[in-house]
């Protein structure tokens, strides 16, 4: 079932229009399946989903063109490596979806459409199953916050809030210091993990006594925000 539909592509001239059409149709169908599964449990944009659907066919065609040619294979590998430096960094979920599409296209390009179909279906089903369960979710996600504290420019902020953080949080990490209001104020951004829910107001009131009652913001930490 999983045997390649041909033993050699370009070197023996066995790539016919019928075989290429079959591989192209299978890779496009698998790309549509992957894109559809991705939209079930993720935020997405139309451009990303369309690209995800077409990527297997693109990879399939590239692999067909370079099979049997070492020089062409090296050139294509270098071209694909440039994509990493010309694209914005994606989330782990997006990167996984791109690799899934590439794997499906590679399998089709090597002449194994049945293997590509089984692999795609299995990965998509496992993906949906894992996304529907608590697997991998942070245990204290509701307690993880991003805290913004505005302080006067002349205030030495290093360690000034340590005792408050010790009382209300299990972890507090300073991520960023940014000047604001023409340099007269500093805005401190922290990643904090609260000890328990229901104490946000008490912590903010304690912080207001230290920062001169200037602006304080507390928000749920979003994915990737801790890297700012």
Question: Kindly state the mean pLDDT as a whole number?
Answer: 76
> Strand order, biggest sheet?
2-3-1-4
N to C succession of SSEs: HHHHHEHEEHE
Could you tell me the radius of gyration in angstroms?
26 Å
Write up this protein:
The chain has 228 residues and is an alpha+beta fold. The protein folds into 2 domains: 17-131, no CATH class; 141-227, Alpha-Beta Plaits. The protein has helices spanning 17-38, 46-66, 70-86, 92-109, 113-131, 162-168, 200-208, and strands at 144-152, 169-180, 185-194, 216-220. Strands 2-3-1-4 form a 4-stranded antiparallel beta sheet. Strand 2 and strand 3 (185-194) form a beta hairpin. The two termini are 49 Å apart. Residues 8-12 and 224-228 have low confidence and may be disordered.
Main attributes of the structure:
228 residues, alpha+beta, Alpha-Beta Plaits, 2 domains, 4-stranded antiparallel β-sheet, 4 strands, disordered C terminus
């Amino acid at each position: 079932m999983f045997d390649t539909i041909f033993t050699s592509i370009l070197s023996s001239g066995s790539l016919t229009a019928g075989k290429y059409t079959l591989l192209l149709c299978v890779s496009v169908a698998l790309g549509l399946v992957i894109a559809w599964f991705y939209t079930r449990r993720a935020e997405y944009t139309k451009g990303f989903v369309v690209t995800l659907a077409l990527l297997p066919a693109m990879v399939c065609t590239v692999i067909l063109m370079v099979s049997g040619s070492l020089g062409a294979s090296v050139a294509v590998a270098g071209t694909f490596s440039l994509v990493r430096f010309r694209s914005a960094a994606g989330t782990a979920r997006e990167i996984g979806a791109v690799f899934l599409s590439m794997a499906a296209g590679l399998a089709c390009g090597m002449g194994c459409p049945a293997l590509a179909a089984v692999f795609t279906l299995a990965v998509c089903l496992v993906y949906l199953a894992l996304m529907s369960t608590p697997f991998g979710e942070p245990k204290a996600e509701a307690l993880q916050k991003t805290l913004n504290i505005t302080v006067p420019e002349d205030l030495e902020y290093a360690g000034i809030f340590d005792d408050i953080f010790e009382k209300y949080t299990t972890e507090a990490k300073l991520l960023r210091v940014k000047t604001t209001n023409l340099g007269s104020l500093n805005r401190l951004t922290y990643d904090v993990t609260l000890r328990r829910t229901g104490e946000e107001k008490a912590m903010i009131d304690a912080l207001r006594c230290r920062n001169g009652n200037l602006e304080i913001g507390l928000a749920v930490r979003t994915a990737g925000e801790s890297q700012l």
